[in-house]
């Protein structure tokens, strides 16, 4: 009999569920099978999201006759929020305040083991396994997109606690501080896509983050974002002493040069004066899918 857990060539059905898009793919041997799915997330309603995931799963399996059910070893889902066991403890990007138990909602549906995890924690495992810096055993992975999140690898292992350093409060001026969940003026509320849009909205204009970064009249706002990032990244260095800081997320990757500060600016916020190199992830927009894949691989290895 073929032992499924020993079958290293089996497929993992992977999901990267973000505040803007869901990406879904079958991955085998660390390679994404084409075609994969990328569509707008149906957020704010648990029922619709669950229906959407079921629909995506069935299209994905239909599109890949080379991956019969017997060859799919697990389904793995990266979610934007804190996760405990099979429960998502709320998610700001998905606009869920309540806890969501995925074993009840989808456990029976998948007919293979289902694994869920925090997206940044999973992406960090993807970066560790596949990234260009696999000799580096201490790094912080920072996503800058709809929100801001941080994953931490210490001595080659995931720092698997519900740390939320993206919510460190750095703007205390009530006129400038944007609201977040139960607090105002955190790094995410000031420097994420949603944060920048909020800041410009206060100035009387409704624009997308992308429009704001391309418009020279918002130069001062963009510089301020860079300064917030210096403060946030400075505190990552103070807290974790990483050898590298790796940037992911649509805004972080597209606007890297505009929003990632020079070491001289970051030094204003650190005790150690040796600022580690800050680089974009080589895994690009698919890092979340690879994260879901390697987390499932690690899980199957130890199960
Ligand atoms: Zn916050």
Label this structure with key terms.
303 residues, alpha/beta, Nucleotidyltransferase, domain 5, 2 domains, six-stranded mixed sheet, five-stranded mixed sheet, disordered N terminus, binds zinc ion
Explain what the structure shows.
This protein is α/β, with parallel strands linked by helices. The protein folds into two domains: 4-124 and 286-302, Nucleotidyltransferase, domain 5 (2-Layer Sandwich); 135-282, Nucleotidyltransferase, domain 5 (2-Layer Sandwich), CATH 3.30.420.40. 35% of the residues lie in helices and 23% in strands. It contains eleven helices and 14 strands. The chain has helices at residues 46-63, 102-106, 119-130, 187-191, 193-202, 209-214, 219-240, 250-254, 256-259, 263-266, 287-302, and strands at residues 11-17, 21-28, 31-32, 37-40, 72-79, 83-84, 87-91, 96-101, 114-118, 139-144, 148-154, 157-158, 244-248, 277-280. The strands form three sheets. Strands 1, 2, 3, 4, 5 and 9 form a six-stranded mixed sheet that branches. Strand 1 and strand 2 form a beta hairpin. Helix 3 crosses helix 11 (287-302). The chain is globular and about 55 Å long. The protein starts with 10 loop residues before the first strand and ends with a helix. Bound molecules: zinc ion (ZN).
Q: What is the total tally of β strands?
A: 14
Task: Note the main sheet.
Answer: 6 strands, mixed
* Beta-strand percent range: 15-25%
Estimated radius of gyration: 19 Å
Distance between the first and last residues' Cα: 18 Å
Q: How many individual helices?
A: 11
Content-based structural category: alpha/beta
How many domains comprise the coordinates?
2
Element pattern in H and E: EEEEHEEEEHEHEEEHHHHEHHHEH
CATH architectural group of the largest domain:
2-Layer Sandwich
Principal-axis shape:
globular
Q: Which percent bin holds the helix content?
A: 25-40%
Chemical compounds bound to the protein: zinc ion
Low-confidence runs of at least 5 consecutive residues? 1-6
Return the CATH topology of the largest domain.
Answer: Nucleotidyltransferase, domain 5
CATH class of the largest domain: Alpha Beta
Average pLDDT for all residues: 92
């Amino acid at each position: 009999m073929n032992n499924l857990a020993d079958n290293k060539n089996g497929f993992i059905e992977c999901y990267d569920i973000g505040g803007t898009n869901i990406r879904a793919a079958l991955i085998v041997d660390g390679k994404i099978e084409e075609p994969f799915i990328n569509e707008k997330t149906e957020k704010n309603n648990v029922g619709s999201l669950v229906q959407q995931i079921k629909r995506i799963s069935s299209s994905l399996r239909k599109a890949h006759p080379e991956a019969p059910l017997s060859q799919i070893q697990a389904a793995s889902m990266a979610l934007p929020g804190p996760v405990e066991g099979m429960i998502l403890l709320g998610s700001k990007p998905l606009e869920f305040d309540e806890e969501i138990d995925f074993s009840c909602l989808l456990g029976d549906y998948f007919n293979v083991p289902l694994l869920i995890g925090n997206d940044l924690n999973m992406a960090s495992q993807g970066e560790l396994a596949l990234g260009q810096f696999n000799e580096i055993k201490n790094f912080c992975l920072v996503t800058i997109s709809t929100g801001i999140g941080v994953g931490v690898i210490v001595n080659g292992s995931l720092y698997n606690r519900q740390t939320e350093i993206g919510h460190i409060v750095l703007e205390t001026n009530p006129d400038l501080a944007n609201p977040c969940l139960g607090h105002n003026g955190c790094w995410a509320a000031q420097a994420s896509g949603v944060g920048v849009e909020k800041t410009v909205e206060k100035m009387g204009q409704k624009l997308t983050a992308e429009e704001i970064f391309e418009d020279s009249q918002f130069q001062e706002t963009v510089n301020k974002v860079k300064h917030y990032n210096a403060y946030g990244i400075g505190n990552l260095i103070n807290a974790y002493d990483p050898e590298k800081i790796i940037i992911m997320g649509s805004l972080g990757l597209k606007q890297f040069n505009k929003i990632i500060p020079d070491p001289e600016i970051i030094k204003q916020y650190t005790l150690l004066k040796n600022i580690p190199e800050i680089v974009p992830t080589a895994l690009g927009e698919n890092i979340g899918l690879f994260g879901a894949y390697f987390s499932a691989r690690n899980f199957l290895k130890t199960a």
